[in-house]
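Standup notes
- DV: blocked on the single-chain target, sequence here:
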Amino acid sequence: MTVQCPETRSIGKAGGVRFSQEVAASAPSHVHFDEKLHDSVVMVTQEPDGNFMVKVGFLKTQHRYEIVFTLPEMPALGQDVCPAPVPSPHLRITDITPVPEGGLRVTCEYMAHQEGVLCEEVLLLSESKEDVCARVKVHARVMDRHHGTPMLLEGVRCVGVELEYDSEQSDWQGFD
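- DV (later): unblocked, structure below
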């Protein structure tokens, strides 16, 4: 898509960005985002195999987050659901609560341990039915702690910062 120069007073759209029609010589240019881009909540999608992908947006390394999302009703699992006993080292489910409208409200704690696009996985097990489970993949885009502060999605809350050991700040003098 081509965006025309402001002098032509036309609107060009590219990737959800709308450029202002007004050209004011004294005012700086403004960028306006489409309303659909303001949907800043944790996204839960069901994959074709019946498992779930949860997109939590941008996070920062060495930070611990509480993430809350709702999964749709899963009749095969039932209402008595628990996390699998083999936990992920960086993602831990802290609470699973049935919601009145149907489905499960899941609260978990996530440690953003490295930079990049990360995917952590947990299993939800039925407490009443054997061999019934649902896989939940949590996708996060983790940025370095020195690259600014991300705008957290609704349902994501920073609950702590992990101290990082920096060997250059050590006062150890070495062996004599």
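- Follow-up: The chain has a mean pLDDT of 77.
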